[in-house]
């Protein structure tokens, strides 16, 4: 840690630059240890062990953007269902069991407080696998949501173990089960705040 980082992190803050790039695999293992359900996953450089249509592929770290100099749009790596075998080896990649969902849940966490939103993305083929493939003509229905108390307690414990005080959680609801997917340590909250009228900007300002 640099002197500048140490100085800034000694002040009241939202998350820390020094641990903002958390290892996704370690997060998933910690989540399992405290009792959150996590879809089975593995790393591979081929598709030999992939079950077609029941396995998804997603980024192993962050959410990289690809600048398209020849277009006004940028590229983003979406969660995708594997439907065909790849006959050539590739760079080691993150694979995970596909969980059929009733709906998705995005939760914003700030200093042990949690605000959640249910995203009914499964009703649209465009957003069924990844709600970020927004259908601007027919947007998903999004509503306020209350996670079970035991799930929220496990979220708080996970954040304490990771030494984070802010972030956005992603879950999938399947029947009576809540499957934890990942934490965005940047803590994306604007969409959730606006749609659900949570006034998270005010919460953040008051915390700081």
UniProtKB/TrEMBL annotation:
InterPro entries: GRASP_w_spasm (IPR026455). It comes from the Bacteria. NCBIfam families: GRASP_w_spasm (TIGR04192). This is ATP-GRASP peptide maturase of grasp-with-spasm system.
């Amino acid at each position: 840690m640099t002197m500048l980082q140490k100085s800034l992190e000694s002040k009241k803050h939202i998350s820390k630059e020094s641990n903002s790039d958390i290892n996704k695999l370690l997060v998933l293992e910690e989540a399992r240890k405290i009792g959150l359900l996590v879809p089975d996953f593995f790393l591979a450089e081929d598709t030999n062990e992939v079950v077609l249509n029941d396995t998804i592929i997603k980024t192993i770290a962050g959410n990289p953007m690809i600048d398209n100099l020849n277009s006004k749009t940028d590229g983003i790596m979406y969660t995708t269902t594997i439907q065909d075998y790849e006959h050539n080896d590739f760079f080691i990649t993150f694979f995970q069991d596909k969980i059929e969902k009733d709906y998705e849940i995005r939760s914003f966490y700030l200093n042990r407080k949690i605000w959640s939103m249910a995203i009914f993305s499964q009703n649209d083929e465009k957003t069924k696998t990844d709600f970020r493939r927004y259908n601007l003509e027919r947007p998903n229905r999004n509503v306020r949501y209350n996670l079970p108390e035991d799930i929220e307690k496990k979220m708080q414990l996970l954040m304490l173990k990771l030494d984070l005080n802010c972030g956005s959680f992603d879950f999938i609801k399947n029947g009576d089960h809540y499957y934890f997917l990942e934490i965005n340590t940047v803590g994306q909250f604007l969409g959730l705040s606006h749609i659900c009228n949570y006034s998270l900007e005010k919460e953040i300002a008051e915390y700081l």
